[in-house]
Amino acid sequence: MRVAKSLLLGTAAGLIAVGGAQAADLPVKAKAVEYVKVCSLYGAGFYYIPGTDTCVKLGGYLRAEVALNAGGNYNGQYSNVFAAKNRLVNYYSMRAREDLNIDTRTATEYGVVRTYFDAVFTWTTGNYVGTGSATGATQYSGTLGLNAANNGLVGSTSGNVNGTDGNLSGGALGVYYAFIQFAGFTMGKSVSQFDAPWINYPGNNFDQLVGGSGSTNGVNQFTYTADFGQGITAAISVQDPTQVYQTAIWNTAGMSTTGVLGGAYGTNNLAGTTSPDIVGMVRVDQAWGLFQASVAAHDNHAAYYGATEATGHPEDKWGWAVQLALSIKNIPTGAGDVINVSGVYTEGASRYNFQELAATSYSMFGSSNAAYQSIGFAGVSDAVFGPNGNLELTKTYGFRGAYTHNWDPYWNTALYGAWAAVSYSGTAKGLICGSAAFATLTGTCNPDFNIGQVGVITRWTPVKGLTFSADFTYSHLDQKYSGFITTTALTSVAKPAATYELKDQDTYSLLLRAQRNW
Predict the structure, then answer these.
(1) Cα(219)–Cα(188) distance, rounded to whole angstroms?
(2) Residue 474, CB half-sphere, CA atoms under 13 Å: how many?
(3) What does residue 80 show for φ and ψ, rounded to 5 degrees?
(4) Where in the sequence is the signal peptide annotated (predicted)?
(5) Mind giving me the DSSP string for 259-309?
(6) Around 129, how many Cα atoms within 13 Å sit in the side-chain half-sphere?
(7) How far, in Å, CA of 195 to CA of 440, rounded?
(8) Comparing 32-36, 213-217, 235-239, 280-284, which segment has the lowest mean pLDDT?
(9) Strands 484-487, 498-502: parallel, antiparallel or unpaired by DSSP?
(10) φ and ψ at 59, to 5 degrees?
(11) Nearest alpha carbon to residue 72 among 129, 139, 120, 119
């Protein structure tokens, strides 16, 4: 027994020794290194860039959508082939988009230095731009170098953002925002200080809501923001108007009947920009919501009366705009319910009412019992002038808003609406209506108009960050013309030479969207 016990102990000791030797031969697991460290200074999602004291946050979304009976990716059928109500229009438009944003922040002895970048990659259904040919060939917009007779979709140009474009497979690349913030200053491409915090979307997905400003794609600016505490801030800003904040300055000498019926009262005589827009803003943020007041000044700078500088030019005139915005939270109808409303008035600064994605030319066709078809047309400008005349500033006013109700943590519905009016001075009306472009008009000539929009959207969020939505929008063009007008053929929309009844018009759109935020 003693011998057996000795043998067992000896064997165990040998195994332990062998096991120890083998363990010593194996690589030792190093202590875990914290390659990525959470940065808690600026909220959730920030991490330190390894080896630096700069924090970074990545974000974005991926979106897939289809718009039915819409003008492009998701607009109203207000002009061009979209509003022709014939075989040239796309009855649906599909889009896929990826958004990527990068937010970096570094604490310094002067305060936080922040940079922000937001880019989008988009592919959208192409648009019809031709009227066919004798061989039946159709043409679609695009930059891929295909022969027009190929009868095919040749590009994705309706997906361009900020003027960029791609080909059939490449789609489009755009930059929304790219700015630096330091010591109260904002420098670069960002949302205008004039805009309400919800920009163009008080409760909607529809892109062309009128009744206020909205630099959805950002505007280049140099801004100083002062924080007075207690939720009170104020900003003074100079911003570039060329991309977002100017419409047409019409020279009525260039009017034609076909142009008028397309919503243009002459040649657009915008000259080079000489002054940035000047913007001021005051905001109060509280637990109950927020209130914001904004003002803007806009220089209207026209080119020449004729083809050369020797013909002279009208003197500049400054326009202006004012906007009030109100958001009310914690309302009794439910947790998270909110009401967002804003109102605006402009004179010689119409883009502060008809925001950058809103239509500024309207040419909508419909049925008629007294003529070939009916048409409703209208146009938005900053100013109008005639031969050797002064600038006549265009006045506009409007409002928009939405009420959003949360049924439960997964479902919500918003009711929204907008309305805007355009009013031309007596002199401008005389220049427009006195043109030979209206020689065949039998009835009332009045370029003033209103546009109204109302919609409903329902969203379902089954899991955090993933939302499915359906957004229905109805629009009504209330134009002030009456009677009939006879025109030559409107070739861009395949309309024949005929007499058309002048009449208010209606349209509607439906957007179905799936979006994953991350």
Answers:
(1) 8
(2) 5
(3) 55, -155
(4) 1-23
(5) HHHTT--SEE-B----S-EEEEEEEEEETTEEEEEEEEEEEE-B--SSSSG
(6) 14
(7) 42
(8) 32-36
(9) antiparallel
(10) -155, 180
(11) 129
- Give the pLDDT band (50/70/90) at residue 89: confident
Mean pLDDT of the chain: 87
Q: Bridge partners of 106?
A: 54, 113
**Structure confidence by residue, pLDDT tens digits, 42-71:** 999 999 999 899 999 999 999 999 999 988
Residue 87, pLDDT score: 87
Residue 146: what pLDDT? Answer: 28
Q: CA-CA distance, 283 to 297, in Å (whole number)?
A: 19
Q: What is the CA angle 282-287-293, rounded to 5?
A: 15
Q: Which residues, 6+ apart, have CB-to-CB distance to 11 below 8 Å?
A: none
Is residue 150 pLDDT above 90, yes or no?
no
| Domain-wise residue ranges, the chain | 204-216+229-518
Q: What is the rounded distance in angstroms from the CA atom of residue 424 to the CA atom of residue 481?
A: 14
* Element housing 234 (H / E): strand 232-239
- For 260, list phi and psi in degrees, rounded to 5: -60, -45
106 and 53 Cβ atoms separated by less than 8 Å: yes
DSSP notation for 463-505: ETTEEEEEEEEEEEEEE---SEEEES-BGGGTBPSEEEEE--E
What does pTM read for this prediction?
0.86
pLDDT digit string (tens) for 361-375?
Answer: 999 999 999 999 999
Give CA 220 to chain center in angstroms: 15
Do residues 322 and 280 lie in contact, with contact meaning Cβ atoms separated by under 8 Å? no
Query: Tokens 């925001």 identify what position?
Result: 355
